[in-house]
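Re: that backbone. Tokens:
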């Protein structure tokens, strides 16, 4: 293996896309609409050498005699065919150790939850980034489920469980998410409040994005000029640090400070900023918990079954109400592309040591 290939292998990110079945007559092919959106987003974010698992958990207790579109083989074949249209080389899906593989597991008992199987697999397979739709088949076909009004979004149980308990970065794809094609540029808006997790989110974004993408770091200003924040937590200092990283070193984007809105909660202000004309984000990136300034109060309880901290209140709000794709970076998220040189990434492309 040559030096370049060794570094490509060292920098490979492992993506996982959780896909579900379909709810006829809402959709005319195997896999729900948001499953296909999540798959398209993962393909667009994938770089040469990255690995990807397309994961489906079959539920024979819910569908003991399934229609053909619910059959796991049909679902897998649908995504295999779609992969080529998203720029995946068929050779990447072939061989004993494919870069892109398709995994089907089955619920063993009625009590097992598909959402738990997704999280368990992501942990066992050492997944770096998990993609899934905000809601799936049950969100489409649940009896009595009110239809979504224009501008509304919904968060399903699988998405909620993944964001809260998966040990990796999670990308939640929404109905309003813009679907990129391979090679199409994107704009990532990262909410930075000076907390370590927010800077971690910024660096993960820089490693995940393609050389033509743009990263916008957004910090919300202080509500009071008399606050006793340490210098490194002052919004002006945060913006200056992000400016040095994004504009002066990486050439990947810009840093913005937005004035606080006393009549608007922080989560809503972040969502409003993501749609602002001069930002127009494709993705919103947020740390799973933040500080009292910016990303808001957070809950560090660990009484769920996985022993993982619950989402901060602002992160919860954004995941639930955003209309664009939301990337949630965790404290336990692994560092991505550890030997990738980010200097001038946006100007001259990614440099490999």
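Recovered sequence:
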């Amino acid at each position: 293996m040559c030096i370049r290939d060794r570094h490509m292998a060292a920098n490979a990110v492992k993506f996982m896309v959780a896909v579900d079945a379909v709810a006829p007559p809402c959709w005319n092919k195997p896999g729900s609409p948001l499953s296909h959106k999540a798959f398209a987003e993962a393909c667009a974010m994938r770089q040469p050498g990255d690995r990807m698992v397309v994961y489906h958990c079959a539920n024979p207790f819910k569908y003991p005699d399934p229609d053909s579109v619910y059959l796991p083989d049909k679902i897998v074949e649908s995504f295999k065919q779609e992969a080529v249209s998203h720029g995946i080389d068929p050779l990447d899906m072939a061989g004993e150790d494919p870069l892109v593989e398709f995994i089907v597991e089955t619920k063993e008992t009625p009590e097992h939850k598909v959402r738990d199987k997704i999280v368990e697999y992501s942990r066992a397979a050492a997944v770096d980034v998990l993609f899934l739709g905000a809601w799936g088949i049950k969100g489409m076909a649940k009896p009595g489920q009110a239809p979504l009004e224009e501008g509304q979004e919904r968060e399903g149980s699988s998405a909620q469980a993944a964001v809260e308990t998966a040990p990796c970065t999670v990308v939640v794809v929404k109905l309003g998410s813009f679907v990129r094609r391979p090679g199409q540029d994107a704009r990532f808006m990262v909410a930075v409040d000076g907390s370590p997790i927010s800077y971690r989110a910024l660096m993960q974004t820089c490693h995940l994005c393609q050389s033509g993408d743009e990263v916008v770091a957004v910090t919300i200003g202080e509500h009071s000029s008399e606050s006793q924040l340490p210098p490194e937590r002052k919004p002006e200092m945060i913006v200056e640090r992000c400016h040095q990283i994004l504009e002066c070193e990486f050439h990947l984007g810009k840093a913005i400070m937005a004035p606080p809105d006393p009549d608007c909660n922080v989560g809503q202000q972040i969502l409003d900023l993501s749609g602002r004309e001069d930002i127009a984000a494709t993705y919103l990136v947020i740390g799973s918990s933040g500080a009292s300034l910016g990303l808001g109060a957070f809950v560090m309880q660990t009484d769920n079954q996985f022993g993982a901290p619950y989402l901060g209140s602002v992160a919860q709000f954004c995941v639930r109400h955003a209309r664009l794709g939301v990337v949630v970076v965790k404290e336990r998220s692994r560092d991505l592309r550890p030997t990738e040189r980010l200097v001038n990434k946006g100007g001259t492309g990614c440099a490999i040591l």
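Residues 235-250 form the longest helix (16 residues). The two ends are 15 Å apart (CA to CA).
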